[in-house]
């Protein structure tokens, strides 16, 4: 992973923590979780407070994700709200954290001046044993504590203020008044500073979970759809009266479900030609085929002439694989007729021609699923399914890793928002 680290393709855009007072607050949060404090003088964190350096020090990548459910978090600064989530068991962890930051902005800004917030995103289950456990998660509650006890002191001060207002002669209680002054020296005027988060309960929307090899859960008005490996415990047994189950290998049913629920943008010249998606996937397909045939091929320096020469020399292999000529044919069909008759396309090839409907709220999750079903498109896999990308990267040859890193740094990392908009139609918020 050294090459990925150097190119900031893993653990990129994290926040550097080196100030002694922030490290001390982080350590109090770790102790609150029953973990040993870090001895590191410097480390980096993501939106949830996860630190790859501390994970390495503790020898536990899941130190903030025990049992891969009820995710822990540590908030040292409001700036974390702009960071990515680099280690999670649920695809919507980042969305939930964004909601928490947005709904409780005032409290987070006020508390983190003198303290740190930490706690858990509590689900309705403590351990995931089967699919039914995942399906039972309808909402989550943020259980929030503070490293220096700021929240507890604010609550105590609020109670004393209420007592002062309501209890006759309470103003004569010198001990109480002294305690109020002592607390206010720490919390400030809580009538002006909102120290307690306003919203702690959030809905758990459609998501991917990394349990049982990866489970996709899509929610519609009357039904829930689960897409995963049929060997997952509870497959077709958990709530069969209200849950539809689709095997991850069943391309036809997956396509029919996503298309019927308007989660896919089907191929039309109006977006296909502008996006360049077909050409992108054709290029990914042929380069992936080259790597499979010759892992030592120098794809970094391979220009179009070299690629066309390789295709001509290996015409039988290219034809047998079928993906590159298929995408070339579909590009010609779009140019000639403006559309593609999807029901005439083999189910295994349909996902090469589609992307998530850009206006659907599940667009990121759908693009993640599509990228898993189009494995040679490592760019899409990196954008939407980093866990899948990193797993695939481990199996690449050294020369192909070099090409992958060069491609991602030379395209996606240059302008992520523009790249996502052009290729996938995503509109940045």
Brief summary of the model shown:
This protein is of the alpha+beta class and 429 residues long.
3D architecture notes:
This protein is α+β, with helices and mostly antiparallel strands and 429 residues long. It folds into three domains: 2-149 and 195-203, no CATH class; 206-246, no CATH class; 250-424, no CATH class. The chain has helices at 2-6, 20-32, 52-58, 93-103, 105-111, 131-135, 150-166, 174-187, 251-260, 269-275, 277-293, 304-313, 315-321, 323-337, 347-350, 363-373, 378-384, 386-394, 398-410, 416-424, and strands at 15-17, 43-45, 72-75, 117-122, 139-146, 201-203, 207-209, 215-219, 224-228, 243-247, 264-265, 355-356. The strands form four sheets. A four-stranded antiparallel β-sheet has the order 3-4-5-6. It has a four-stranded mixed β-sheet with strand order 7-8-9-10. A hairpin with a 4-residue loop joins strand 8 and strand 9 (224-228). Helix 7 (150-166) packs across helix 8 and helix 11 (277-293) packs antiparallel against helix 14 (323-337). The model has no long low-confidence stretch (mean pLDDT 91).
% residues in beta strands: 5-15%
Percent of residues in helices comes to: 40-55%
Distance between the termini: 31 Å
Counted beta strands: 12
Number of self-contained structural domains: 3
List the uncertain runs.
none
- As a whole number of angstroms, the C-alpha radius of gyration is 26 Å
Spatial order of the strands forming the largest sheet: 3-4-5-6
Shape annotation: elongated
Look at the helices and sheets and give the structural class: alpha+beta
Mean pLDDT: 91
Q: Biggest sheet: strands, sense, closure?
A: 4 strands, antiparallel
Number of helices: 20
InterPro entries: DUF6638 (IPR046578)
Pfam families: DUF6638 (PF20343)
């Amino acid at each position: 992973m050294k090459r990925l680290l150097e190119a900031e393709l893993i653990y990129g855009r994290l926040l550097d923590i080196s100030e002694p007072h922030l490290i001390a607050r982080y350590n109090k949060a770790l102790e609150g979780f029953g973990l040993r404090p870090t001895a590191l003088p410097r480390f980096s964190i993501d939106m949830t407070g996860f630190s790859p350096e501390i994970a390495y020090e503790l020898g536990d990548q899941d130190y903030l994700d025990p049992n891969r459910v009820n995710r822990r978090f540590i908030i040292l600064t409001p700036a974390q709200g702009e960071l990515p989530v680099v280690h999670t068991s649920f695809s919507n962890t980042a969305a939930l954290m964004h909601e928490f930051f947005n709904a409780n902005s005032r409290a987070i800004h006020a508390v983190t001046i003198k303290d740190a917030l930490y706690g858990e995103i509590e689900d309705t289950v403590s351990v995931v044993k089967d699919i039914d456990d995942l399906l039972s998660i309808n909402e989550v509650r943020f259980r929030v504590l503070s490293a220096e006890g700021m929240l507890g002191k604010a609550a105590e001060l609020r109670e004393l203020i209420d007592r002062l207002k309501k209890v006759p002669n309470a103003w004569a209680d010198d001990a109480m008044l002294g305690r109020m002054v002592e607390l206010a020296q720490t919390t400030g005027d809580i009538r002006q500073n909102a120290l307690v988060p306003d919203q702690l309960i959030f809905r758990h929307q459609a998501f991917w979970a990394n349990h049982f090899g990866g489970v996709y859960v899509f929610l519609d008005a009357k039904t829930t759809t689960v897409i995963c490996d049929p060997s997952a415990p509870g497959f077709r047994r958990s709530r069969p009266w209200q849950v539809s189950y689709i095997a991850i290998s069943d391309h036809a049913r997956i396509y029919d479900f996503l298309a019927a629920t308007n989660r896919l943008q089907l191929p039309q010249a109006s977006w296909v030609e502008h996006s360049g998606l077909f050409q992108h996937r054709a290029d990914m397909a042929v380069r992936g085929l080259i790597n499979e045939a010759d892992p030592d091929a120098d794809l970094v320096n391979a220009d179009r002439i070299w690629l066309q020469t390789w295709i001509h020399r290996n015409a039988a292999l290219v034809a047998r694989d079928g993906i590159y000529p298929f995408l070339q044919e579909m590009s010609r069909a779009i140019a000639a007729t403006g559309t593609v008759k999807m029901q005439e396309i083999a189910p295994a090839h349909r996902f090469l021609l589609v992307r998530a409907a850009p206006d659907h709220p599940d667009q990121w999750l759908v693009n993640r699923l599509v990228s898993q079903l189009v494995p040679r498109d490592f760019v899409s896999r990196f954008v939407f399914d980093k866990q899948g990308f990193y797993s695939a990267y481990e199996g690449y040859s050294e020369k192909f890793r070099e090409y992958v890193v060069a491609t991602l740094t030379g395209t996606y990392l240059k302008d992520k928002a523009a790249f996502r908009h052009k290729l996938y139609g995503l509109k940045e918020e």
